[in-house]
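User: Please predict the structure of the protein below. I'd like the answer in structure-token form so I can feed it into my own downstream comparison script.

Assistant: Understood. Taking the following sequence of 123 residues as input:
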Amino acid sequence: MTDQSAAGPTTNFNYLKTGAGKTERKALCICCSYPGTQLALPGCVRDQAAMVDMLPKQGYDVTFLTDGDNYHEKPTKANIVREMKKLCAWLSEKEGRQGWISYSGHGAQVPDDEIQNSPCRIK
């Protein structure tokens, strides 16, 4: 809903009630920066470091997977899948919990090959 006044437009918000107490929040930040390769993405480390700095200030407990340092677990497929499953299970345990997933890294488009993806080939 927008209000027009002499000072300009204003917006009125209806906030959702979260109930009594503090909302439980968890975040998963994934950084695939490929250091030391021709595909290196140093900006990914900075982006996710900013997220890891900001999210706790918003009440999130953060899990950080990165190949940008030697202090955190690496963002391997196994680690990413494990942490996503843990986050989803945690979210499902109790109503009202909030989750956040952030990814920085390369993306790729995979061609649609109808023959290889045919359900008939799955045994």
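That's the full token string. The CA atoms of residues 31 and 46 lie 9 Å apart.
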